[in-house]
Amino acid sequence: MMGVAAGLAMSGLRPVCYTITPFITYRCMEQIRVDVCYHHVPVVIVGTGSGLSYASFGGHASFCEEMGMLRLLPGLTVLAPADEVEVRGALEAALKV
Known about the structure:
Elements: H1 2-10, E1 16-20, H2 21-25, H3 29-37, E2 44-48, H4 66-71, H5 84-96
Helix pairs in contact: 1-3
């Protein structure tokens, strides 16, 4: 998904990738770093259930490190909205960049 999104962004489109946070961060870390950040392409990455939000589903769905891990990547802006109003504002801002 991340590699395809990077290719679409290189073609002038503005893709949005969305899924549960651990799967869009840890599983895709190399693609985010190499395909998105190194090429400076405008891909919007949206994760839901960050931190311990999905802890009841087991250890595979609860991570607290993704914010710090993603902030290490060059040119990547990390936002953590707290409610639906902030989500709307964050997505609108991300799509304008």
